[in-house]
Amino acid sequence: MYEVNHWINGATLDGTSGRTSDIYNPSTGEVQGQVNLATKDELDAAVEKAAAAQVAWGATNPQRRARVMMKFAELINRDMDKLAETLSREHGKTLPDARGDVQRGLEVIEVCMGAPHMLKGEYINSGGPGIDLYSMRQPLGVVAGITPFNFPAMIPLWKMGPALASGNAMILKPSERCPSTAMQLAELIQEAGLPDGVLQVVNGDKDVVDAILDNDTVQAVGFVGSTPIAQYIYGRAATNGKRAQCFGGAKNHMIIMPDADLEKAADALVGAGFGAAGERCMAISVAVPVGKDTADKLIEKLAPRVEALKVGPYTSETDVDYGPVITEAAKERIEGLISTGVDQGATLVTDGRGFSLQGYEDGFYVGPTLFDDVTEDMDIYKEEIFGPVLSTVRKDSYEDALSLVMENQYGNGTAIYTSDGDTARDFASRVNVGMVGINFPIPVPLSYFTFGGWKKSAFGDLNQYGPDAFRFYTQTKTVTERWFSGIKEGGEFAFKAMD
Ligand code: NAD
Q1: Are residues 93 and 203 in the same domain?
Q2: In sequence order, what DSSP letters do the residues of 387-440 get, joined into one string?
Q3: What is the Å distance from ligand 1's center to 150 Cα?
Q4: Whose CA is nearest to atom 26 of ligand 1?
Q5: Whether residues 160 and 212 fall in one domain
Q6: Residue nearest to atom 6 of ligand 1 (CA)
Q7: In this predicted model, what pLDDT tens digit does every residue of 100-151 receive, in sequence order?
Q8: 250 lines ligand 1 (CB under 6 A)
Q9: pTM for the model
Q10: β strands within 179-310, DSSP E
Q11: Which range of residues forms the domain containing residue 399?
Q12: Is any ligand 1 atom within 6 A of the Cβ of residue 35?
């Protein structure tokens, strides 16, 4: 049993609230640790120290800040296996998948080495006689990152990198289910040279989130999690005058056209639907084959692939496709939704309920589940299941398939499999979803683009990482200046006339 506390002023600080939350090992079902849940007073104290530390950090030459990012990236690489082990032990994803989690976060830190370029302003020297205009990007001060359980390294890194490289101090509030990876990352960035207090990791639950939202010193909130909480946080942060970007849940569809390579489409669906036990906001959870023939052939190819998936503990390096889901409650909820799908008339091709793994009988495992004949009115279509369940919704035409995607409340990611460029191009330009894959099942943009959904998958402006993140974590100041010695005879008159 271990205890997770807070990371304050460059060291761990014991929690004082007396409130804790259990940390499970989802692979075995055992409670392995406890995390201390911070109070409002503890949060306010962390913010005060962060504000003090931010002054010097914000005034530090951006190139020096970028060097901290460079060293941080080196240390993440050094400790990759250690980070992956910590992450998987609390999350349950397989070790290769966990290394991918760290890697995708690391790539954002690599882009943050270019922070000086991202932070440059604009300049014009011909605003009028002797008049220059220039703009600068300045840090906001203290900002907060509130992150979900499903990417314990990647999403904290998406938040930390751009916020800190822009000269802010950050309060990071990781998921209470998987808090240890963020603590390890805090230690590494301190080793990389980040001054004490610039990153404070405050662990907790709703109480500490509300304290962040109500703290007047916190200028911006970057949230990632489920849609109801994203909407709640966006509303409360905005009411309190903060900048907020809150990314929520998803229901990602993949359209399979009659001219698609069905072997490749089936392989892609299995990877994108069941990888990480479907606990990815970019997982494909709905397959939309167009035409009866396509649908029949697709199910024929999918069924044996899904049945052959191997479920096991996170420790398996090679022979396991995915691990357990995060909690017993998540397992029960997913199995309940599968039962509802059957009751509401969907065809259950592969049933993952009641799955038990020898030697790990108490682990939170759900077997791979494939549904056919799912319709829009069923709960398994309407709800984000966030588990290893793939639903097939058959459509007769491309237009019907496109309308299905367009009318869904979520708009995080989507994909189309086709060999026709015109259809692919039409889909990319018309679909109302933030990230689109063409013969690409999980179109998470590379770290120098930006990541963000549409509709109920995101609230607020600007995306995560890439240039948008530097805009989110800075404010623009524009200076109009005039130096009279630069005004030639007649110039001032010309300028006045211009006024
Ligand atoms: P969650 O919403 O339960 O929790 C996210 C964070 O909010 C955690 O830090 C948690 O402590 C906090 N929180 C939970 N309940 C709260 C409340 N009532 N008030 C204030 N704060 C609260 O999400 P989760 O289960 O950790 O993560 C899974 C969800 O995240 C899925 O819906 C998934 O689609 C989504 N997600 C979205 C993206 C994206 O970029 N759009 C990325 C990853 C995950």
Answers
A1: yes
A2: SSEEEE--BSSHHHHHHHHHHSSEESEEEEE-S-HHHHHHHHHH---SEEEES-
A3: 9
A4: 148
A5: yes
A6: 148
A7: 999 999 999 999 999 999 999 999 988 888 899 999 999 999 999 999 999 9
A8: yes
A9: 0.96
A10: 199-201, 218-224, 243-247, 252-256, 284-289
A11: 252-438
A12: no
